[in-house]
Amino acid sequence: MATIIRRRKALTVQPLRTSPIVGAALAFLGIHRAIPLLHGSQGCSAFSKIFLIQHFREPMPLHTTAMDQVSTIMGAEDNVVEALATLCAKAAPELIGIPTTGLSETQGSDVERAVKAFRCHYPQWGHVAVVPVSTPDYNGSLESGYARAVQALIENLVPEGMGVHRPKPSGNGRWRINVLAGSLLSPGDVEALQAMIEAFGLEPRVLPDLADALDGHLAAEDFSPTTVGGLPISYLKQLGEAIATLVIGPSLYGAAAYLRARTGVPEYRFEHLLGLDATDHLLLVLRTLSGRAVPQRLERHRSQLQDAMLDTHFVLGGRRIALALEPDHLNALSGFLSSIGALTVAAVAPTYAPVLEGAASAAVKLGDLEDLEALARANGAELVIGSSHAVETAAALGVPLLRAGFPQYDWFGGASRSLIGYRGSQLLLFELANLLNAHRHRGVAPYRSRYAQKPEYQAGERSDERAAASAHRG
């Protein structure tokens, strides 16, 4: 069990934490024809939008209620009502998610009352779903904001089933599987997970479906004011008809418990899907739910991962790694590193979560990248795993960086890369080994006898002898 080292500094240096507003907006972006509406100033929206655009390399339909100094003092509920009416009239969305910001929370804005006022004054937009969620900047991080938004979607859009489970196949005769995808999964990861579920003849319904919305494809429309792709709202109303729910990431366990209480659908929890054991567990669950044998193609992928573990063992075994990630992601990668014989010698998370206590590290520091650099330097880290914010930290340490998490603004393809399952874990092994090999060759140093003369000295001595012999003959 890891020891949690609490924050003691009076300030943050080289911040690691990403605002929970970004996490909530990311969750809403996984719903079809949705618009995240940030209740705060224009600056709050601008910073969130910049990071999302740089990470996904896609336009983001992010809007703001544009609180100014007057509305901050006098009340900003009218801003919410006006913004909702404008977006409904101009963009025709199916969902508007309203994450709050530190400004609106400190001001004391009552978003629930503002939504009721909007329903009263604009009944013509009654078909548009509006989901508010509390995500002040000063409480939590990207992971917690994402989890709160997912739970808010369930609370507002999944109908009551009185806790009675009534599974029902879809129109094509396949049984449905709900998937609550945590923030540690990239769009590429979600797509790979969907493929594994479909290989067993099951139909996945992913909440939120980032693979369909943010996978980096060219849409038929030149411009859309709402999200393109994602989980349709009509599917949210059918979550109670699934045979089971797969929950990926401990941060979503609360939302999963709420969904189970509301629909009665049994759930299967996974801390992560990295490595051999975690993927084996997933496939055994899918085999049980579907009644089908594990496809031969997946068995082949498993043997390929085992071979990759053997190939990279002498490069990765005993290597000292530093991690700076959100709690779920840090727990997943530290466990994976432990399974291949690598050591997590420095671990820093932006906020506390219970899952950190089970991380495969002696201690986890709640802090920033300055703390990571100090811990990594003191413990001789040979590689850093973190977001693009850790580029300067890795450079200062003189070690390579494996980019993971959010944001990856200086790297192409981070959102599309899949590191879960057998194939993803194989790719992760190769990336780690290649980074370490490229930075510094690790092997047995050649033996040199203490009595042997250096080649340079021998060559110089022979040259001097030839020069002396030539002078004597002359």
List the SSEs and their pairings:
Elements (H helix, E strand, L loop, with lengths): L2 E3 L14 H9 L5 E5 L3 H15 L6 E2 L4 H6 L2 H15 L3 E5 L2 H6 L3 H11 L7 E5 L8 H16 L18 E6 L5 H12 L4 E5 L2 H4 L19 H4 L7 E5 L4 H11 L3 E4 L4 H16 L5 H21 L3 E5 L2 H13 L3 E7 L13 E4 L2 H10 L4 E4 L4 H7 L3 E3 L17 H19 L15 H19 L1
What brief labels describe this structure?
474 residues; alpha/beta; Rossmann fold; six-stranded parallel β-sheet; four-stranded parallel β-sheet; 14 strands
Account of the protein in words:
It is globular and about 95 Å long. β10 (320-324), α14 and β11 form a beta-alpha-beta unit. α1 crosses α2, α12 packs antiparallel against α17 and α15 runs parallel beside α16 (391-397). Among the domains are: 20-140, Rossmann fold (3-Layer(aba) Sandwich), CATH 3.40.50.1980; 176-295, Rossmann fold, CATH 3.40.50. The protein is built from 18 helices and 14 strands. The chain starts with a strand and ends with a helix. The strands form 3 sheets. A 6-stranded parallel beta sheet has the order 1-12-11-10-13-14, with helices on both faces. A 4-stranded parallel beta sheet has the order 3-2-4-5, with helices on both faces. 45% of the residues lie in helices and 13% in strands. It is an alpha/beta fold and 474 residues long. It has helices at 20-28, 42-56, 69-74, 77-91, 102-107, 111-121, 142-157, 187-198, 210-213, 233-236, 253-263, 275-290, 296-316, 327-339, 369-378, 391-397, 421-439, 455-473; strands spanning 3-5, 34-38, 63-64, 95-99, 129-133, 176-181, 203-207, 244-248, 267-270, 320-324, 343-349, 363-366, 383-386, 401-403.
